[in-house]
Specification:
This protein is mostly beta strands. It contains no helices and 6 strands.
């Protein structure tokens, strides 16, 4: 086979891939938001005032097919402000 080359004949060998990262069963998500008027289905939920929201979501991967999840959400609509009724 004159003129043909095989991968085993190449002077430079391929670099080995790095080992995979160790498995961490925990995954956490969190975040917050600010809204100038919180409207749900066309009705204001914050009396046309600003509102804030925050969430925290921990997840535990028992195995590749089973996950345990808890989602928490806290909203402050600022509806009960002094002098507003």
């Amino acid at each position: 086979m004159a003129g043909s080359a095989f991968a085993a004949d190449m002077p430079l060998k391929a670099v080995k891939a790095p080992p995979p990262a160790p498995f961490d069963p925990w995954d956490i998500a969190f975040g917050a938001g600010v809204m100038n008027d919180y409207i749900f289905r066309g009705v204001t939920q914050s009396n046309h005032q600003p509102s804030v929201t925050a969430y925290f979501e921990p997840r535990y991967n028992v195995n590749k097919d089973l996950q345990l999840y808890i989602g928490t959400l806290d909203r402050e609509h600022l509806l009960c402000q002094p002098g507003r009724g």
